[in-house]
Design brief:
Structural class: mainly alpha
Helix content: over 70%
Number of strands: 0
Number of helices: 3
Shape: flat
Number of domains: 2
Largest sheet: none
Strand content: under 5%
Distance between the termini: 43 Å
């Protein structure tokens, strides 16, 4: 893959992310301007903080699992994309998501 192919993909991701941030900011501003109770605003902010922590935890666990999957592929000597390499990566992703689910289930 050429580096020139990555530019449109990265540009699309950045545009989507920017739109998401703007929409969330407008929603928060509307909630604050609607004279909502202080408790509602506080619970909204706390909920966002918890959600962000959980997103980071999930990404971290899945990326570690994928790293272990890539290490397994490398240790087996696979050089090409085969069904086995895809199965290892999909299995690692699934195990990472299951680990996240079990960890958050114990917390909550």
């Amino acid at each position: 893959m050429n580096s020139g192919d990555l530019i449109p993909i990265i540009l699309f991701i950045c545009i989507v992310w920017a739109i998401k941030i703007v929409v969330e900011a407008r929603l928060r501003r509307q909630m604050l301007n609607s004279n909502g109770s202080q408790e509602m605003v506080r619970s909204m902010i706390e909920g966002d903080e918890i959600r962000r922590r959980h997103e980071s935890l999930r990404r971290g666990i899945v990326l570690v699992a994928l790293g272990l999957g890539f290490a397994a592929i490398s240790s087996r000597g696979f050089d090409e994309v085969t069904p086995m390499t895809l199965a290892i990566l999909l299995g690692a992703t699934g195990l990472g998501n299951l680990a996240y689910y079990l960890l958050t289930r114990k917390q909550g």
